[in-house]
Amino acid sequence: MTLKLLYAPVVIYAKALVLVGLLACSITISIAIAASTTDSEVEVRQVIEQMNRFVTDRKLPELLKLFAEDSIKVDLFPMRSYGKKEAKGNNKVKTTTLEQRWQAVAPILFSSTKFYRRSVKNMELHIDKGLAVAWLDIETETVSRKQDATRKFNRFKEICILRRYQDGWKIVVLSNNRHDI
Description:
Blueprint: H1 2-56, H2 60-65, E1 67-75, E2 94-97, H3 98-112, E3 113-128, E4 131-144, E5 152-165, E6 168-176
Parallel strand pairs: 1-6
Antiparallel strand pairs: 1-2, 3-4, 4-5, 5-6
């Protein structure tokens, strides 16, 4: 009986140590998971901010490096119809690679403007493992090269889908609603 009385506190103490150890491991794992989620969110935000900064700074080679190979630009609405009523029958969804789109658009944009700024005003992210979806509120500020050019502002929504690769997050799909501005 005496042995049982001496043994009981040791067992209780051992169980308590195991529980404390498990709790500590659980907290450590939770912190690590939260940190990796936070790291992913920070990395995705950086890629999106870089994309807009590279357009503003007219750095096409750097911009193109942010796109995954064969990434896609999806045009849900006809180009150059911003603010205009959609033409009847002109409702086809068009796609091209992001690289092709920016190689075509950048020379025109850069040569026709004295100043072009593209910035993220709001960003909502959803990240699940190697997939990130960003809902963006984008604002552009443009001053054309025309003699009496005035500063113009445009605001639109953009959806950006990113994928995590070994070398970091890359943009795989981009689309926006610029037709209704």
